[in-house]
Amino acid sequence: MSTKNWPLWEVFVRSKNGLEHRHCGSLHAADEEMALENARDVYTRRSEGVSIWVVESKHITASNPEHNGELFEPAQDKVYRHPTFYDLPDEVKHM
Amino acid sequence: MKNETLYKYILGIADNSLILGQRLGELTGHGPSLETDIACTNMSLDLFGQVRSYFQYAAKIAGDDRTEDTIAMLRKERDYVNVLLVEQPNRNFAYTMARQFLFDVYHLLFLQELQKSKDLTLAAIANKSIKEVRYHLRFSSDWVKRLGDGTTESHQKMQDAMDGLWTYTDELFHQTEADKAMVHEGIGVDVTALKETYYKKVNEILSEATLEIPESKYFQKGGKQGIHTEYMGYLLAELQYMQRAYPNMEW
Amino acid sequence: MSEEQVKNLEKQFEERIARDEKIEPKDWMPEKYRKTHIRQMSQHAHSEIVGMLPEGNWITRAPSLRRKVALLAKVQDEAGHGLYLYSACETLGVSREELYEQLHSGKAKYSSIFNYPTITWADMGAIGWLVDGAAIINQVPLCNTSYGPYARAMVRVCKEESFHQRQGYEIMMKLANGTPEQKEMAQDALNRWWWPSLMMLGPTDAESIHTEQSMKWKLKRKSNDDLRQQFIDQTVPQADLIGLTIPDPDLKWNEERGSYDFGEIDWDEFWQVVKGHGPMNKERMKARVDAWEEGQWVRDAAMAYAEKKQERKEKQAI
Q1: Cystine design at B39: which of A13, A41, B199, C202 (Cβ 3.0–4.6 Å)?
Q2: What residue of A is the nearest CA neighbor of C73?
Q3: What is the CA radius of gyration of chain C?
């Protein structure tokens, strides 16, 4: 008999309709039904959620922090993407 | 007491949740995985929540100095009227899940009917409990399937559990005097009418779990009359310990 | 990587922490940081799940339904907290099964206080009030620790734990205001749990290893002795309020320090329990090992079933 351990799953919970699902933690489960049930029992005991996503951790592709420079820093000087970049006279309202 | 029959009828419902909740509570901290441990405790908590609603109502009907706690913890063994099924011990996880499943199927069918009770308090409790029990059934059915259709070892263990517990299923559908009277008044559920659907549903899941449907023709009964298996006394010894050792105190 | 490069990385790493930046799982970190975190987080996780046992001991015997559900919910929370903390460890590449193995083989430690027996109902009150009280003092600062997953787990733990101590104190209060027999039960529990609770905050600073490094990494914000003083100062008035007596004849308010002076702690007893010779060490470990080993066939079955189901799905797809 093989003794494979229950894989790790990541749990995302929507706390109420209108809000996005947020990562709230992880757990172990043998299959997706169990992962959902366990997520319900572990992460929504205090009415924290109205919807749950579970995904096996191995299916998540994550960026590598070593690449943070090339991935994220180039956005920092693109100030023209923000409204405060544009000078308008104070008299212009509602813009 | 003005309504002795209704009082007795409520105990007949609530004692099942009380004793099953107590059995599940024994497992907290000892489950096969942390996740499963948490899940079983959740079911125990649901059941005790139901018990409290029922017994608070029963205490009100009694109208004397009885409370939810004295009703739960200060009766003699012969006065507990739960079915024998729920008092059976946690021999292993297969037994625990089989017992849960065999009760959950019944419990859900029962509550679906109790929701229609003319007694609005009972209907309201049923209405709240039914969501909890629907989840219990989902959880226990999944585990019956996992263990039945898992490994050779788990299959055997689940089959043994079903074979061992099957003999206690028929009692679920026996009518007590209180049952009959309450059915007559439109308050109670006619449990005899649930039997066919029950075995149909149970058999469906057992087949899916690749389990044999036990063929026992002999069934045990007595719980509803307060004649319990020998396991019950020990369960009550723990349940009642504090109330017996330190009578008339508040906690 | 050359030694110099590593030094450089370490320097940047320490600077990030000093700036209150969080470290996340995939970030570069010194090996010692990783190891220290695995050790501390797993000890913490083990304490949660071993800690379920002394309280679980009273679930079936709770004196009322209200107390029973509260205790069930509390012990269940501890399972949850163990789970959050094991998950945090797993972000550092060590599996829950490996951590269990360390616990079961006696290699890993857990909080010694759970090696004392719970012999009366009042012990549920004393544990909630004192043990959770001491734990909270330890844990609240960890919500701000440098390792992101640990800090997030602790935020969740602290939020959930806020009812635990209140639950315990309420039990004690009810007993202290009850019959003489109940009050005696409460006092007896306080007598037995007081000193172990003080020990729970760790050896005196003079004997404590790891402290300086842990402070830098925000694994620790205050020294053991400071935490202990804080615990005593906040707990003594709570005992006074319900008419219970702290079992320490040397306990005295020190006006000058604005704190309580207290008696000598029996550190021999502490080390005896830490080394595995407390009253319940063997039973606690046996209960954990039994649960794990008896659960093996269940976990295997669930995996086997999951694999079969997956195969069926794949076949259907073809």
Answers
A1: A41
A2: A45
A3: 22
**What is the Cα–Cα distance from B44 to B139, expressed in whole angstroms?**
13
Contact C72/B157, CB-based, under 8 Å?
Answer: no
pLDDT bucket at A1, cuts 50 / 70 / 90 = very low
Contact B35 A33 (CB under 8 A): no
Chain A nearest-CA distance from B155, in A, is 14
Per the CB < 8 Å rule, is B151 touching A29? no
Q: Specify the pTM.
A: 0.95
- C56 vs B contacts (CB less than 8 Å): 28-30
Summarize pLDDT for C234-285 with one digit per residue, the tens.
Answer: 999 999 999 999 999 999 999 999 999 999 999 999 999 999 999 999 999 9
Cβ contact (<8 Å) for A27 and C87? yes
Q: Chain A window 36-65: which residues touch B at a Cβ cutoff of 8 Å? A: 37-38, 40-42, 45
Start-to-end CA distance of chain B, whole Å, equals 27
Tell me which of C1-5, C200-204, C280-284 is least confident. Answer: C1-5
Say what the ipTM of the complex is.
0.97
Residue B69: which residues within 8 A CB-CB, separation 6 or more? B243, C63, C64, C65, C66
Identity of residue C94? V
Taking the C-alpha atoms of residue C45 and residue C99, their distance in angstroms, rounded to an integer, is 9
Q: Sign of the C-alpha dihedral, residues C50, C55, C61, C67?
A: negative
